Amino acid sequence: MDFLDRVAYRLRERYGDEMEKQTVVLPSRRAGLWLTRSLARLTDKPLWSPSLLTVSELFRTFTGLLPADSDTQIFELYNVFRKLFGEEMSFDDFWPWGEVIINDFNDIDLYMADAGKLYSNISDLKEIDAVFGGLTDEQVEIIRGFWKSFNPSTSASEARLRFCSVWQKMAPLYTAFRESMKAKGMAGDGMLCREVAEKALSGQLQVPEGRRWHIVGLNALNNCEKTLFRYLKQMGVAEFYWDDDHFFMDDTEHKASLFIRENRRIFGNAVGKPDTSLHDPPGGLWQIIDAPTDTSQARMVAQLLEDEEITGEDDPTSTAVILADEKLLMPVLGSLPPSVEDVNVTMGHPFRLTSLYSFLKQLMALIRSARKSDGYISFRSDDVLSLLRHQYFRLLAGTEGDIVVREIIKANMIRVNASVLGERFGLKQLFTVPEGGPEIPEHLVAVMENLEEATFTAETDGPSLSVDREYLRMAIHSTVRLANLIRSYSLDIKPDTCLRLLDRVFRKMIVPFSGEPLRGIQVMGVLETRALEFRNIIFLSLNEGIFPRMSYDNTYIPYNIRRAFGLPTVNEHESIYSYYFFRLLRKPARGWFLYNSTSGGLNTGEMSRYLVRMSYSPLFTPRHRTVHINVGRSRLMAESLSREQEHNMILLSRYGKNSEANKFLSPSAVNTWLNCRMRFYYRYVCGMPEEEMLEKEIDQRRFGNIMHEALRRLYSTVKGSADAVKEVSKMAGEREQIRETIIATAMDEMHWDRPELLSGKGVIIIDVLERYARELLLYDSRHSDLRLLHLEEDFTGTFTVASAGARTEVMVGGRADRIDMTDGAVRVVDYKTGAPKRDAITIEGLFDEEKDKRNDAVLQALFYCALIRQIHRGRLVLPTIYWIQQLSSADFTPYTRAPGLEGPEALYEEWKTIMSDFQMHLELTLNKIFADNEDFTMTSFRRRCACCPYRTLCRR
Ligand code: SF4
Questions:
Q1: Does 404 reside within a domain?
Q2: 275 in any annotated domain
Q3: With 90 as the cut, is the pLDDT of residue 634 above it?
Q4: Do 251 and 395 lie in a common domain?
């Protein structure tokens, strides 16, 4: 029989006729519901239900003090602190400190410690006996040991002095804080319990007549609880039911039994002996499963439920999915199989993991980044983009946000004007910036209220947004509460402080999920399992560090002092966790215990100490199992994609002669094909643009663009001139003009104003560009003759290819940097700002897809040579690469090391041969590009994937 069934049986047996006079105190509301169910099953007649309370609710029934939440307590504590010690600390600095102090004060109260003694500063060890009269010898010895090793008068390190300075403020702060709270009729949890317990100790606690209390299923008790329970016991109005029918009760060393033994000794056990022999060993089939990731743990839940045909339909006590790490709630719910129709979730979901939190964070980042100049407010474009891309912004502004995102990126804006955004979206309020800190919470509330309204509008044709509304209401409630606290304590909080406070409040929030607990698979946190039992349990995140938790709440009270004054330490926490875990093993027929075996971040990858204990205990003999991730390439794209007719139809509709699109296949497209056919497919068949990013710095691509355009602007004055060399030489000496041309070009390219461009690294980049431009002008000025024919002009041509079962003409072409003439030769000049490639080339090598280091630049220049050679019949038309970084070196040559291309002195016949060779290979390649049977394959040179914009598609 389950523990709660046995409690229900005893209650029914003894108090069946006066159930309405009974108050049952349980560890959780869920346990109360289950007890009611057990009671209902014992009779088919109508029956009064007993009153059901949790322990905190029990204490509240004995006092008129109102419970205060931790934020209110911190504000009050700061108020008291200022009165006692002046304004030595800002509220911002005080908050984290205040959180720790409130926790410590709470522990002191719950364990009824003497704060005056606890916070004494014992510099003279002889004083110890006098100060700590009333403590046991062992406690005094622990305190003596601590102060002896700590004493700052013997070793005054800065940390010790700081500790002492904080320590000596604590006792007066504790007393004044309690008085202040009490005067306002409020109390924190600990203070409220202590108030009740002290009344009980002094015999002044009024207990309603005729009522009986039943304390059910608790484990570790603090001193306030013990005091109250003892009082009720002495008055003969309380009975105690401890869940002690467990194998570990036979083992005095087992940590799980620590508190139950003590409770049983003090209060006795009214639950009676179980119907089976006492402390049967657990009889389930156990599996310990190590999973490589958190996601695979969540998926494993679905697989187990399916494989074991568990649907949760039979009995709500049949199956529990227990999450030691609340982070896994959403992944688990998201991967439940369709066979599971009813799920009951009772656990908290951290608000910090919701999308609403990320939206609020982005909104707060926007406020932080606001800058006022010339009467205008502007935001950092990064913050604007993050906000505009958020799903909640879509709720407010539809798809207009996407359009504005593209515009901001295209214009490469560094800051975005607030009023422009407000008008564009009709959301002026969202883009206004509150004047001071205290106004910020109201601003956020107004935005959240708009969002809430938008959820109703969006729902007319979309999915239910009721969960989002729950999040919103909770966040609005907490924000309004913070605003009220700031106002009522008249704190002049700076905007930054207020944003930090809001963030802390949001990060602490837990969204409570509670459903109909008597149906379906039960998904719950560990605390929710108290007093309940299940036939199947699936327990997730049983990792050392998570269960038991390694980081306990911060405290200023050193470990030894905590021990001496009976405050809980890590040892007590461990016993509590041990009880939570091992008590769950009494009933199950099957149990699966999962942990994440990959170390990373805070996770050590080790299984919890309780699983280790299970593994080595003859009582359990669990099976061990490993979940493997299927590493087969489940890619979006296969390594090779077969050519379909449809692909060629698309290509011809773009590049076919007389096609509507009227586009030209550029030399870059040919290079792309030769470097990676798959990349060609994405770019030129699918037409996927390479993602444009907001650039906050002048990267290599932008550097090249500025260089090309600045040179075009500089050389445009000498284009066509017969005296170009002289003019170029003069220009090379006009440093200011070169610099100004570069600055103007860079401002246009980056869409930045002059101060923005010339701040930080920008000025260094402009210096480099200026030097390169001068070196190029000087280099050109050394030519004996030079005539500039074309600057940044388009050249096109046609080629005939076999495609889609017919021969068809396709358009090729592109924009050449510059075409000039010198020493009787025409040159296709390509400016290159990257690292020079000086290898000798062969035409075959230029088109060899299997060659790792092809020379794209020469192929591109030769491509234009092939297009214009007909215009310059009888002349050499030479590919000429200006490797800008190399221009000043003595042995630099812009020509290609290949017979026929080595400069104006090259032999015409050799040039003709190499050009017809090039033409032939180009035709062959174009034919492949348009062929019916050439597949799109991924490159075998993975190095090329590193900077490819499509690598997420290829998963490379
Ligand atoms: S990621 Fe690699 S294989 Fe894929 S398209 Fe880019 S270069 Fe080709």
A1: yes
A2: no
A3: no
A4: no
With the most atoms of ligand 1 within 8 angstroms of its CB, the residue from 677, 938, 952 to mutate is 938
The residue nearest atom 7 of ligand 1, judged by CA position, is: 945
- 851 CA distance to ligand 1 middle (Å): 16
Q: Closest residue (by CA) to atom 2 of ligand 1?
A: 945
Please tell me the distance from the alpha carbon of residue 550 to that of residue 569, in angstroms, as a whole number: 12
SS3 content of the chain, % helix, strand, coil (to 5): 50, 15, 35
Let me know whether 711 and 852 are in one domain.
no
Pair 99, 142 in one domain: yes
Structural domain of residue 905, as residue ranges?
635-694+785-956
Question: In this structure, are residues 191 and 548 in contact, taking their beta carbons and an 8 Å threshold?
Answer: no
Q: Which atom of ligand 1 is nearest to 956's Cα? A: 1
Q: Which of 608, 626, 644 is the last residue of a domain?
A: 626
Helices (H), 720-761: 724-733, 735-750, 754-757
Q: Integer distance in angstroms from the first to the last C-alpha of the chain? A: 57
Task: Looking at the structure, tell me whether residues 767 and 805 fall in a common domain.
Answer: no
In the 8-state DSSP scheme, what is residue 658?
T
Nearest-atom index, ligand 1, CA of 945: 2
367 and 473 part of one domain: yes
Q: Tell me which H or E stretch contains 832.
A: strand 825-832
pLDDT at 154: 57
Which residue carries 């009779």 as its tokens? 43
Pocket of ligand 1 (CB under 6 A): 676, 678-679, 938-939, 944-945, 948, 950-951, 954, 956
Instruction: For residue 224, tell me if it sits in a domain.
Output: yes
Residue 800: inside a domain: yes
Residue labelled with tokens 């008249």: 490
**Token output for 542:** 């049983």
**Measured between alpha carbons, how far is 467 from 922 in angstroms, rounded to an integer?**
60
Please identify, among 168, 192, 216, the residue that sits at the C-terminal boundary of a domain. 192
For 645-701, the pLDDT digits (tens) are 899 999 999 999 888 888 999 999 999 999 999 999 999 999 887 766 667 778 888
Residue to probe by mutation, ligand 1, list 635, 673, 676, 941, most atoms within 8 Å of CB = 676
The CATH number covering residue 811 comes to: 3.90.320
